[in-house]
């Protein structure tokens, strides 16, 4: 029994494609062509063309001489029936193929839209959390209105204190001036008292030394 030799395939060597009896075609190109045909079959132009063709076919094979008729009325227009049957048999798979491709595109688009919606929802949730955190942080930070109110209160307090200090200073000056006036008045009174005392002391001595004593009646 002969030994079977197994052929080892190297990983760095490309494998030659196997030959197949099946025909090779581009599915995308065939799908595009089928979609174009299906779109054309679903238009009013195709219906007008088909109606005109059938009308001309029937009129020619009915009223033309029998020698030139290719689908005579006697055979019940067999060729026309065959052509319409073939057209219908091919039109149905082409329409289904176009619908399948459209369904695949719609499914892919829906998946992309779903993924995009999920990303947008995630972004919205993130932005919502950020806005909430900003609101919380802003609630702890002094706002412009709060600062204005505080500055207004401080300004009013400073003005009130300055007025009180001015009034206290004026009152102190007034009290000082009154004290000085009282002291001057007391000094004048004391000087008057001293002068009166000196005058009383000097009056007898001057009378005894210079002039004889004269009573009060004589002076008058």
Structural overview:
This protein is mainly alpha-helical and 220 residues long. It folds into 2 domains: 27-140; 144-198. It has 5 helices and no strands. The chain has helices at 27-41, 44-63, 78-140, 144-210, 216-219. The longest helix is centred in the C-terminal third of the chain and has 67 residues, at 144-210. The chain is rod-shaped, with a radius of gyration of 65 Å. The protein starts with 26 loop residues before the first helix and ends with a helix. Residues 1-5 and 213-220 have low confidence and may be disordered.
Descriptive tags:
5 helices, 220 residues, 2 domains, mainly alpha, disordered C terminus, single chain
> What portion of residues belong to β-strands?
under 5%
Radius of gyration: 65 Å
Q: How much helix, percentage-wise, in residues?
A: over 70%
Described by strand count, sense and barrel closure, the largest sheet is: none
Question: How much is the average pLDDT?
Answer: 80
* Total count of helical runs of at least 4 residues: 5
State the end-to-end CA separation: 192 Å
What would you call the quaternary organization? single chain
Strands, count: 0
Order of helices and strands: HHHHH
Shape: rod-shaped
Stretches where pLDDT falls below 50 for ≥5 residues?
A: 1-5, 213-220
The overall number of domains is 2
């Amino acid at each position: 029994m002969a030994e079977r030799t197994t052929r080892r395939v190297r990983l760095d060597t490309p494998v030659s494609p196997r030959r197949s009896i099946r025909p090779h075609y581009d599915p995308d190109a065939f799908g595009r062509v089928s979609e174009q045909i299906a779109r054309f079959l679903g238009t009013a132009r195709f219906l007008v063309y088909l109606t005109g063709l059938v009308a001309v076919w029937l009129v020619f094979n009915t009223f033309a001489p029998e020698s030139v008729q290719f689908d005579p009325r006697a055979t019940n227009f067999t060729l026309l029936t065959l052509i319409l049957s073939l057209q219908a048999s091919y039109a149905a798979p082409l329409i289904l193929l176009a619908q399948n491709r459209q369904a695949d595109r719609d499914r892919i688009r829906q998946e992309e839209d779903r993924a995009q919606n999920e990303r947008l929802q995630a972004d919205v949730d993130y932005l919502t959390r950020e806005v909430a955190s900003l609101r919380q942080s802003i609630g702890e930070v002094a706002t412009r209105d709060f600062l204005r109110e505080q500055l207004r209160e401080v300004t009013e307090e400073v003005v009130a204190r300055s007025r009180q200090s001015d009034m206290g200073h004026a009152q102190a000056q007034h009290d000082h001036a009154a004290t000085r006036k009282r002291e001057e008045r007391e000094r004048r009174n004391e000087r008057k008292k001293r002068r009166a005392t000196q005058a009383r002391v000097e009056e007898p001595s001057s009378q005894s030394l210079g002039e004889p004593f004269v009573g009060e009646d004589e002076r008058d």
